[in-house]
Write a structure and sequence with these properties.
There is one protein chain. The protein is an alpha+beta fold and 788 residues long. Among the domains are: 107 residues, Winged helix-like DNA-binding domain superfamily/Winged helix DNA-binding domain (Arc Repressor Mutant, subunit A, Orthogonal Bundle); 116 residues, no CATH class; 135 residues, Rossmann fold (3-Layer(aba) Sandwich); 96 residues, Alpha Horseshoe (Serine Threonine Protein Phosphatase 5, Tetratricopeptide repeat). Helix content is 60%, strand content 9%. The strands form 4 sheets. Strands 12, 13, 14, 15, 16 and 17 form a 6-stranded mixed β-sheet that branches. A 5-stranded antiparallel β-sheet has the order 4-3-2-1-8.
């Protein structure tokens, strides 16, 4: 029996060739290691019987030669080759702690009963058979019919299914050309597979061969022809190219920055030569004071301090031009040695990199303010050549100068206040301002610093005691110097945060009367108008802020947010593109840009933007958003991967769990999807106990219950959500998805129609994989097209 098995045997329709270590079945061929072959032969000797682990180890490895691990590895190799499964075995059954059983009786390979051997007397010469008979006997006609049927099915599948799977357009063209090219190859193969030495060989199939009919002449010819044609078409496409429709080239994330504004200048941070703290204070203060004074010159556009200081002191003219979008810029250096101060300053043309002026100052430390004023005057005098005649020649005098010692303490407070907001940093900043006021009690800028710090303390730390303190400090500052626009801007910010929008508007307007080029005041005024339901005034104020400071990324971003919130996604995307062009590492701008692309249905571009966000900082939100884009693009494996990373970063976020479950469900992985839905349900239930009337939690939980098949509970939840948020488009969108999952197309269409009417993106709706077959419903297509 063993010798017969070694010559080969069948397990069902799988051929085992022990001497070659080969397993051949419907799924193809696989190689078996020698020990795995011996184990399989041992099992085949006693089919249907338990073969103990000890017996197998003794027969295959000899006495004391093997191990249970080696045997398990060999069994695993056999199962892999047979495409067998441990949990639902077809061939090999595991009996725990005992051994294994072969479930299929082996049938040894017998001599072929076929054939008239080529060249024998019973051989039939080709010339003795007519053409039609020849074609019949060789199966050419049968192959032709089979190939045309298979080819037609392939083309139909490509035409109907590929588009829904979001496969590229060339895939259907490739299949069509493949089928056409493979037809003559199939006929030739069918003919020549029956030739031996120039004679026809006619086969009569044995019973064993009958079980292998799927590998017979016709099927082999068709499959081989398709394989050969696939290789040939691929080579042709690589070297010559298949016909294709003109497809617009997908644009990478590279954007044109905003135009350079005439009469524009930036002041870069001044370099501290010796690197000491005091020299750094003088360098930063000098640059900022010059910015403030230049911004008061009518008609001169000055880059904001935050934008200018995003560059290093010795940045190249190209970097300045690309980031700040100005014609000219100042750069300089400060060195303090004892009581002496040395300052060097240059004005440079951002387009050419040529110096317009250069000046050096060496004066006592106490003459700091004289140096500042002289730099301002020189700058205005040299810029004035490029300014229109009506532009004033001198900057405005903002306030009386304090003592240098008070100024140094004040600057320390400013630098501390600009750090991350916390009780500690706010307390430290207030301490520096108080120290400056001890030196000079009437130093208005120090009172203004206290005012702005208290305002920030209230908005960031949420300490209501700061409100009265902020108002008192602001009032003192204005009493000492009514020209301090930053005080009015700080009060405006305070009133916005407390909901006093009319008072906020008045303060921002006062700030703009003092300094019409104050971007902070213009942005604050625009946000105030939004809350006052005055969208036209809000847009006008925000556009004015954009026009005043050409390189202010925050102004472009704020305008983009306004346009986004009003549903003007294409216009919003343009503003965000400016932000990214000015600062490619701006995560906020990239995230906003990706969201604007998403709501326009530009999923590939949105995914690329989210990938750049991830490259900057791998956060849960970035992974979730990128996963959503891959989900809409039909790349479900990538979507699952990104959603899993999001869940790893924040396991208790039920929305991340829902996103992962949705991706698993459309990827036809129902069990893992259900597990994620169940975890999400527990987390959402906990959130609902904290806030039982949150319409968004109710909405999300309704979708989870629908996915889990708990339809009555889901209907109750979505009903409560709609009652609480009847004007929220997302609630009606989820309602539509629930009806789609239930197969109620009429109710789904009604819910989707309401969502679209309330502002839900038709691009998102049309691209949602959960829509399924409803996407091709004429009523759905009409609803989406009419809304667009």
């Amino acid at each position: 029996m063993t010798s017969e098995l070694l010559r080969g045997f069948y397990l069902g329709d799988v051929l085992i060739e022990p001497l070659r270590g080969q397993v051949t079945g419907p799924a193809g061929s696989a190689h078996l290691p020698p020990k795995a072959v011996e184990v399989l032969v041992c099992l085949a000797r006693d089919p249907g019987q338990l073969v103990t682990r000890e017996t197998l180890l003794h027969r295959v490895w000899g006495a004391d030669g093997g191990s249970n691990e080696a045997l398990s590895h060999a069994i695993s190799d056999v199962r892999h080759a047979l495409k067998d499964h441990h949990d639902d075995p077809t061939y090999i059954q595991t009996l725990p702690k005992r051994g294994y059983r072969l479930l299929v009786d082996p049938e040894p390979v017998t001599e072929s009963t076929s054939s008239v051997i080529g060249g024998s007397e019973k051989g039939v010469r080709v010339s003795d058979i007519g053409l039609l008979e020849n074609l019949k006997r060789r199966g050419v006609l049968e192959t032709a019919i089979a190939y045309m049927v298979v080819g037609w099915l392939l083309i139909q599948v490509a035409d109907i299914v590929f588009e829904r799977l979001l496969l590229p357009g060339w895939a259907a063209t490739f299949v069509t050309v493949l089928v056409i090219a493979g037809f003559p190859i199939a006929l030739v193969l069918s003919w020549y597979l029956e030739f031996r030495d120039g004679r026809a060989i006619l086969h009569k199939m044995s019973p064993v061969d009958a079980r292998r009919r799927r590998f017979g002449r016709t099927y082999l010819s068709v499959l081989a022809a398709l394989g050969i044609a696939a290789v040939a078409v691929y080579i042709y496409d690589r070297n010559i190219g298949l016909p294709s429709a003109d497809v617009p080239e997908v644009r990478k994330l590279s954007y044109e920055p905003p135009p350079i504004v005439e009469n524009s200048i930036a002041v870069l941070p001044f370099l501290s030569i010796d690197g000491s703290e005091e020299t750094g204070i003088f360098a930063n203060g000098l640059a900022e004071d010059v910015i403030v004074r230049l911004s008061r010159v009518p008609g001169l556009h000055v880059a904001a301090r935050g934008d200018s200081h995003s560059l290093s002191p010795n940045s190249s003219s190209q970097q300045v031009r690309e980031r700040l979008r100005v014609q000219l810029y100042l750069q300089g250096s400060v060195e303090v040695a004892g009581n002496e101060m040395r300052v060097a300053v240059q004005m440079i043309d951002a387009e050419t990199g040529f110096h317009v002026l250069g000046r050096q100052f060496q004066k006592p430390r106490d003459a700091f303010f004289d140096v500042r004023d002289e730099i301002t005057s020189l700058t205005v005098a040299n810029v004035r050549v490029a300014l229109p005649p009506e532009v004033q020649a001198a900057a405005l005098n903002i306030e009386d100068d304090p003592s240098v010692d008070a100024y140094v303490l004040y600057r320390r407070g400013i630098d501390t206040a600009r750090g991350p907001a916390s009780i500690g940093s706010i307390t430290a900043a207030l301490g520096w301002f108080d120290a400056a006021l001890e030196v000079d009690p009437e130093y208005a800028a120090a009172h203004a610093g206290r005012c702005a710090t208290y305002v920030r303390g209230y908005t960031e730390v949420d300490d209501s005691s700061y409100i009265e303190k902020a108002q008192a400090a602001c009032s003192t500052a204005l009493a000492l110097n009514p020209n301090l626009d930053i005080v009015h801007t700080a009060l405006g910010d305070l009133y916005v945060s407390t909901g006093q929008y009319a008072d906020a508007e008045a303060q921002y307007q006062r700030a703009l009367r003092k300094d019409p080029s104050s971007v902070d005041a213009l942005i604050g005024l625009g946000r105030t108008y939004q809350r006052m339901k005055r969208p036209e005034d809000a847009e006008a104020s925000l556009r004015q802020a954009v026009n005043i400071h050409p390189g202010n990324a925050d102004a472009f971003n704020t305008l983009g947010v306004f346009l986004f919130q009003t549903g003007r996604f294409a216009e919003a995307a343009r503003q965000y593109e400016y932000v990214v062009a000015l600062d490619p590492g701006d995560m906020r701008g990239l995230g906003n840009l990706a969201s604007a692309y998403m709501l326009q249905g530009r999923f590939a571009e949105s995914a690329e933007a989210f990938e750049r966000v991830l490259a900057l900082e791998p956060t849960k939100g970035a992974y979730s958003n990128l996963g959503l884009m891959k989900y809409y693009l039909g790349d479900f494996d990538a979507a699952i991967e990104h959603h899993e990373r999001a869940v790893e970063l924040q396991e208790n976020d039920y929305l991340a769990r829902i996103n992962l479950a949705d991706a698993l469900w459309v990827a036809e992985q129902p069990q893992p999807a259900r597990q994620q839905y169940e975890i999400a349900a527990q987390l959402a239930d906990s959130a609902l106990r904290v806030n039982p009337n949150d319409p968004l939690i109710l909405m999300d939980l309704a979708w989870i219950r629908t996915a889990l098949g708990q339809h009555e509970r889901a209907a109750e939840l979505i009903g409560r959500s709609k009652a609480l948020a009847a004007d929220d488009p997302y609630v009606h969108y989820i309602d539509g998805l629930m009806h789609t999952r239930l197969g109620d197309e009429k109710a789904a269409l009604a819910a989707f129609s309401t969502a679209v009417d309330l502002g839900y993106s038709t691009r998102l709706l049309a691209g949602d994989p959960n829509i399924g077959s409803l996407r091709h419903d004429a009523r759905f297509e009409r609803m989406v097209s009419l809304a667009e």
